[in-house]
Design brief:
Blueprint (H helix, E strand, L loop, with lengths): L2 H26 L5 E7 L3 H16 L4 E7 L5 H10 L6 E5 H9 L7 H6 L10 H6 L1 E2 L2 E2 L2 E7 L2 E5 H7 L10 H10 L2 E2 L5 E3 L3 E2 L3 H5 L20 H15 L7 H7 L3 H6 L5 E4 L4 H7 L4 E5 L10 E10 L6 H11 L2 H9 L4 E2 L2 H4 L17 H4 L3 E2 L7 H17 L5 H16 L4
Parallel strand pairs: 1-2, 1-3, 10-11, 13-15
Antiparallel strand pairs: 3-13, 4-5, 6-13, 6-14, 7-11, 7-12, 8-9
Length: 431
């Protein structure tokens, strides 16, 4: 058994042993501890943070026995839905913003409004409004966010900027600045082969949202695609042009031929800037010794700037036999203590304003120095459409067509004209 697997098993055993000890203590006192099962995913480091942070909490809550159930992220939603159908569901589940749509449209969540209303020590106003809104359906809050994750980070290699004599990008930069800098930082050898790319970004959504375009007419109740809107098309075409016209960004084939991940390209000086989320931080901190930072994704020429976003919340299933105890667990899992530790290690941007503005995030000296800009970026995030078929739409229509776009085999106009009618048809359908 590999060391990482052994570590994972060990960490997952800790809370179970703790729960057994609590149950024995409760039985000795003549009481019975309510078992609250929590399903979640995460790396060994995330598991360690969550389980260790909850140890102290469990000592002060002898009436609750937490049972952590680690579930792999791939296929997470189908695994949870299968357990629900089989009558073996957990009480609390972690829900990423898009998995949340799958669960919410299946009506598996218990509304948290009654708990929020009665709990004098809890307020949704303490969280960033944009992420709370994602977990709210028709006025009912169904999950409490642990973090928020805008696709707003342009990581840049400061050493490459210094070598080129270029000033670092600021949060006020524009798409024109991005293109100009990416051109200056793209290098070729004597044969014309590109040896250093200026930019890479997988988040094509930012180029649509950031140009005033949209994926659909209404994120919360989509009825038709807006990918064929002129602003959406223009943003997509600029994204494609970075690859195929200006050649400052690698094509999918070039990436495959390089045989290395984007983070390694970035750290090895083969890539000057890349667009992603803050979750890249732990790897960059731990593995590499070069100077880097982040800037906010740039504005377009009209001063527009919006980004896609991820994030995770915890919700209580309707089938839970211990909803009140589960509510206490949800509060603990999204507490300032847990969020502060995740923030300190660079794993996640806090959803609690107080933590995001505090010493573990905005005030932390650990790289990236400019991570505090995400506290502003959360005000301009756009989530994927809230529709049960959207993930199917992406997999079936958008991704294959955009692969052709990125490869230069189609224009943005041609791509969207092919898929918009198909998207509109599926948006009319329900599961």
């Amino acid at each position: 058994m590999k060391l990482k697997t052994l570590l994972l098993v060990f960490l997952l055993t800790l809370p179970l042993l703790s729960g057994c000890e609590k149950k024995q203590a409760a039985e000795a006192e003549g009481t019975s501890a309510a078992e609250v099962k929590v399903a979640f995913w995460g790396s060994p480091e995330e598991i360690d943070i969550v389980t260790q942070a909850m140890k102290g909490w469990q000592k002060t809550h002898p009436n609750i026995q937490i049972r952590f159930e680690h579930t792999p992220y791939t296929g997470y939603d189908s695994k949870i839905l299968t357990r629900i159908a089989g009558g073996a569901a957990p009480d609390v589940i972690a829900a990423e913003v898009n998995y949340f749509v799958t669960f919410a449209t299946k009506d598996v969540f218990l509304s948290l409004n009654p708990f929020i209303k009665e709990d004098k020590n809890f307020s949704v106003e303490d969280f960033f409004a944009s992420i709370i809104d994602r977990f709210t359906v028709k006025g009912q809050v169904y999950a409490i966010p642990r973090d928020v994750a805008p696709f707003a980070c342009v990581f840049y290699n400061k050493d490459l900027f210094d070598q080129a004599g270029l000033p670092y990008p600021t949060d006020g930069w524009t798409w024109d600045d991005l293109l100009r800098i990416a051109k200056a930082l793209t290098k070729r050898d004597a044969s014309g082969r590109i040896t250093q790319y200026g930019f890479y970004g997988w988040a094509w959504q930012d180029f649509i949202y950031g140009n005033g375009g949209a994926l659909v007419d209404d994120v919360k109740a989509p009825t038709k695609s807006m990918l064929d809107d002129p602003k959406s098309v223009e943003g997509l075409q600029f994204y494609s042009d970075l690859i195929n016209k200006y050649e400052v960004m690698p094509t999918p084939l070039a990436l495959a031929n390089l045989g290395m991940g984007v983070d390694l390209m970035f750290a090895s000086g083969r890539l000057a800037m890349f667009l992603s989320g803050i979750w890249e931080t732990p790897s960059l901190r731990a593995k590499y010794s070069f100077h880097w930072d982040v800037a906010m994704f740039p504005k377009n020429r009209d001063g527009v700037r919006h980004f896609g976003s991820g994030g995770t919340g915890y919700g209580i299933l309707r089938s839970s036999k211990h909803p009140r105890e589960a509510w206490e667990v949800v509060k603990a899992l999204t507490s300032a203590e847990v969020q502060g530790e995740l923030a300190e290690r660079g794993l996640a941007q806090p959803s609690l304003r107080s933590v995001a503005l505090g010493e573990h995030w905005a005030g932390s000296p650990l790289p990236p120095a400019n991570k505090k800009m995400l506290n502003e970026a959360v005000n301009d995030i756009v989530f994927d459409p809230f529709h049960s078929r959207w993930r199917e739409i992406e997999a079936k229509y958008i991704n294959p067509e955009f692969d052709l776009l990125k490869s230069g085999k189609e224009t943005a106009e041609a791509a969207v004209q092919k898929i918009v009618p198909k998207i509109d048809q599926l948006l009319k359908e329900k599961d």
